[in-house]
Amino acid sequence: MRNSALILVVVLAMSAAVMARNENLEQLKARLGRADTVQKIDTCLQIARLQLDNADRLYSSGKVDEARTAIADVVSYTEQAGDSAAKSGKKLKKAEILVREMGNKLREIKHSLNFDDQAPVQEAADHLEKVRSNLLSAMFGKSNQ
Length: 145
What we know:
It is a single chain. The protein has one domain. Helices cover 87% and strands 0% of the residues. The longest helix has 31 residues. It is globular. The mean pLDDT is 87.
């Protein structure tokens, strides 16, 4: 009897965690509309990271179309964060580190996929590398003195 109750508690906790993650993603997207520049950078990076984790799970579950949609979000929100960081000069280092980590994760995901499913993930990784290069240029580019 106690084992059944324990299993039920674990299942309910896992379900709540999944629901909280989805609510969290929606809350982050809602917060993005009213965020200032620094908050926008952080929020976009959080959304991108959540969607990257979602894409990994979706690919593992065989839900390729949903995973591709999540990958498109990763690219979009990473680009928004990169643009905001480069224009404002704020959070450049943090953004560069997170974009690099996400690019590495995309390459890991790519290697776990069938050949036919690898191209969109590689394109996303390449795009994140361009965002990262732009961030590095903003950090270490020539000054206008």
